[in-house]
Amino acid sequence: MKVSTSRELVSSLGDDLPVTILFDYQPYEKPTLEYPGYHESVVVEAVMINEVDVIELLSRCAVKGLEEKCLTSIHEEGP
């Protein structure tokens, strides 16, 4: 059963510009004969600077980097 959760991470972008990352996290789910399972994933939904969403201004590479920060944060803190 695919179950993702919405989460928030306070981080920095570029030269220490503080941002709040709003993202969905899908934990790994083992496949079975009747269920395909899911790979662990993060989808960044918004990148907030002072309550303004700037995700549309970021490159795909920058968003991928933020997704990696989110996964690292989850692995360090636990699900």
Question: Care to describe what's here?
Answer:
The longest helix is centred in the last third of the chain and has 18 residues, at 60-77. This protein has one domain. Helices cover 23% and strands 38% of the residues. With 79 residues, it is α+β, with helices and mostly antiparallel strands. The protein starts with a strand and ends with a helix. The model has no long low-confidence stretch (mean pLDDT 88). The protein is built from one helix and four strands; from the N terminus they run ββββα. The protein has a four-stranded antiparallel sheet. Strand 3 (41-49) and strand 4 form a beta hairpin. It has one helix at 60-77; strands spanning 5-13, 17-26, 41-49, 52-53.
For the biggest β-sheet, the strand order reads 1-2-3-4
Poorly predicted sequence stretches spanning 5 or more consecutive residues: none
First-residue to last-residue Cα separation: 17 Å
Compute the number of helices.
Answer: 1
